[in-house]
Amino acid sequence: MAQNTLSIGWIGAGRMGIQLATRLIEAGYDVAVYNRTKSKLQPLVDIGATAVDHPVDLADRDLVFSMVSASKDLKHVMLGEGGLLTGAVAPKIIADCSTVSIEASAEIRAAASERNTEFLATPVSGNPAVIAAGKLTVAVSGPEATFINVEPVLQVFGRGVTYVGEGEVARLVKIAHNVFLGVITQSLSEITILAEKGGVSREAFLGFLNDSVMGSVFTRYKTPAMVNLDFTPTFTMPLLLKDFDLGLEASSNLGVPMPIASATRQIVAQAAGSGNTEEDFATLMRVVAAGAGLQLASENAAVTDGLEPEK
């Protein structure tokens, strides 16, 4: 199938989904979209998408993407009432971008196979700012021939698409990635608060770190949030906790000790349990600061997130 000739369906218009669907529309694809709250689809309709009332209304599409919050949501949009795989016809290919369990992914793959539909697990790494900068990455697993067929579409999402193997292994890749995300953010919070309590501003410490070999795209990206205490959500504590639980379940099943991840999971669970459900997970820094007896205040500094759009 040639690029831009596929008819595409999209399920899920959350913060990430709406931006990825936008990129497909702007790349010239014919895109039809579904979201549980239909009003959220209007920005996509305004730029050329067609809105539908049920996931099953996308079943005549060549390729349907889904991006939902959790395993139960994926099962509902695929197999529940009005689900994508419940109609008289089924799409040729389904690509799911959600972060869900290996078991849920395998269940949907089996259901798709019964309808002669190819299924790819295509979880993504990034957030709306990363998408806007053209730096989103995708891990893909499933039939390699199907991946090769749709790789040009996936390349529209950002800068990197990696085929990682058959079956559900992309789920493990994404879950491992998100566990690392949580552990790194907790560690970054601890060392930043350590420096601040010793008399170093967060701006100065993170500026030094970002220029060192320990700096990364991620530490630069989180610097404005940590320096200026802007915790507008990119990824919330409940979502991070879900991924820690998926990761630790995998570690148990595979016999891989993960003591640091286990300890961080408890910190994230405490933060979520205390009511921190809407702010960004970088608020882990506040937990560390409270334990250190440090009252945080914005430094109101002009710091960059390092996410300049790629040329």
Would you give an account of this structure?
This protein has 311 residues and is an alpha/beta fold. It folds into two domains: 7-167, Rossmann fold (3-Layer(aba) Sandwich); 173-291, N-(1-d-carboxylethyl)-l-norvaline Dehydrogenase, domain 2 (Orthogonal Bundle). It is 47% helix and 12% strand. The protein has twelve helices and nine strands. The chain has helices spanning 15-26, 42-46, 71-79, 102-114, 128-132, 144-154, 169-197, 202-211, 217-228, 237-254, 259-273, 284-291, and strands spanning 7-11, 30-34, 50-51, 63-66, 93-96, 118-121, 124-125, 137-141, 160-165. The strands form two sheets. It has a six-stranded parallel β-sheet, with helices on both faces. A three-stranded mixed β-sheet has the order 7-8-9. Strand 1, helix 1 (15-26) and strand 2 form a beta-alpha-beta unit. The longest helix is centred in the middle third of the chain and has 29 residues, at 169-197. The radius of gyration is 20 Å and the shape is globular. It starts with 6 loop residues before the first strand and ends in a 20-residue tail after the last helix. The mean pLDDT is 94.
